[in-house]
Amino acid sequence: MADDVTVPPAAASEASVAPGVLRAREALKDVPHEPGAAKPDPILVADSVVRRFGGLTAVSVDHIEIQRGAITALIGPNGAGKTTFFNLLTGFDRPDEGEWKFNGSPLAGVPAHKVAKKGMVRTFQLTKALSRLSVIDNMRLGGTGQKGESFWRSLVPGLWKKQEQEITERADDLLKRFKLDAKRADFAGSLSGGQRKLLEMARALMVQPDMVMLDEPMAGVNPALTQSLLGHVKSLREDGMTVLFVEHDMDMVRDISDWVIVMGQGKVIAEGTPDTVMADPRVIDAYLGSHHDGTEHDSAEVAAEVPGASSVDEPAAASSPAASASPAAAPATEKAVSDKPASDKPEGGKADE
Ligand SMILES: Nc1ncnc2c1ncn2[C@@H]1O[C@H](COP(=O)(O)OP(=O)(O)OP(=O)(O)O)[C@@H](O)[C@H]1O
Hints:
This protein is α/β, with parallel strands linked by helices. It has a single domain (17-337), classed as Rossmann fold (3-Layer(aba) Sandwich). The chain is built from 16 helices and 10 strands. The chain has a 6-stranded mixed beta sheet, with helices on both faces. Helix 5 crosses helix 7 (157-177). The termini are far apart. The structure holds adenosine-5'-triphosphate. Adenosine-5'-triphosphate is lined by residues 53, 56, 58, 76, 78-84.
């Protein structure tokens, strides 16, 4: 009788969890929830990284490890130092002090294009697609400086032509994967904000990286493209890549992260799984600048006192899987955490349709 054949809810949900998620979460399950926690297989290890701007210490990270093959979110209030830390790690800025190793090789002071060659690429909060170049040319440009490419190789016309052809084929494959193939010949400047984010992510993959760093992938993205972007980030993990992303959208953080690292005033103040971190009084204090005793009741009360805490972008929140699947999993504190000034939007591009 068909009615007797029911799948227990737990088994059903386990079966639907992708292998990359299970791998990453299993690997992290015994990692202590504390700042600077050691990971079983770190792809990136940084020590004593300091960046000052005049009298302001924007970043002062004692120790941080990023687990290979996992999706790690780097969160924190505005001005916590997240983007500055990203800039340092990816060679777009130089530290005053500190060192870090990526795949075991020292990277401090290595310029951005060499960092990318070593397999660590990033996207930007404000997308960097070249508006007056076509989508395919933006992709091809992203393919220059690939791992294994050398000056001497480029001097041999046959090899150079073959490589150019390979780059174009790879670019076209990625455009298909990101559903941008119909836009191949269009100027990048004609894309919507969300499509630009997709293009930037696709372009980052041209160098076949081991680690992808995404700076606010959801900023300025309309709900229409939210699911697509989330799916693409998750698929990076399924492909064995490591993802570190900065994001203010707590629905996204909760939905896709295996691990969360929280920065406050330049330092790492908390680490753990999304649920534990979002309930951590240090995290709530850092965001809200208020003291409380850590109970859920108090957290909600504190959030309610924060101007704008209830004026979250409702359509976006409602469209997110985390929000719609379990409204109870999005307490008031979380909404306050996801509040972000409207002025912090990506430049250029049309609004998403
Ligand atoms: N080039 C700079 N010159 C001077 N101060 C800077 C510079 N870049 C960043 N800062 C300062 O360093 C601090 C950290 O900024 P950063 O942009 O890294 O923070 P963030 O956590 O990324 O913030 P947001 O979430 O708003 O993007 C801030 O006080 C910022 O004003």
